[in-house]
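Anyone have tokens for VTT domain-containing protein? Sequence:
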Amino acid sequence: MTGVVVFESVGALAAGPWIYAVVAVSVLLDVFLPVLPSGVLVITAGTAAAAGSGAATGRVPHEVPDILALILSAATASVLGDLVAYRLAWRGGERLDRAIARSRRLTSAQERLGEALARGGGALVVLARFAPAGRSVVSFCAGAAHRRARDFLPWSALAGLSWAAYSVALGYYGAQWLGATWLATGVSVAALFAAGAAAGYVMRRRPVS
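Reply: yep, here.
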């Protein structure tokens, strides 16, 4: 009962516009600080919104536009964060190039990203959005390698939208299936981490075309 009361309270607050700003700022900044729990925040907001819409009790949700706004705010912030990191890396000059050259992981990521974008495929960008710190590596490497924005940003937009929709859906359907409880949020967060681990494994084990 306590968990339900908590999420009902958060759900009422989530109806206000401030929740979108908090989510957007967190998602935008985590390209620079991957330790920020932006995914957990998005899931919690989705769970709270689902509770407020009646999804957790089986009623027809009447606040679906709030869910869509949450997805759009998270996705937009994700793309903007990628773009800022991309532009900073583009102007980083020789110091950033030397920093990347000293890291075998960053050098490999830069090479693979360049090959993927050159072939017109950006699956690596989408996968990296789910992998831990993958978004940061890809955004900075794309800018440092001076990849064209028109090759990178469309895939960044797809990656941001996919990640945001997946995260919000986890929170929303977690509340619908398990109720507005901390258990629902915990299961949803675990599913997000599992997707990140799977994305990281795929990126390490097979080439991306």
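The chain is about 80% helix and 0% strand.
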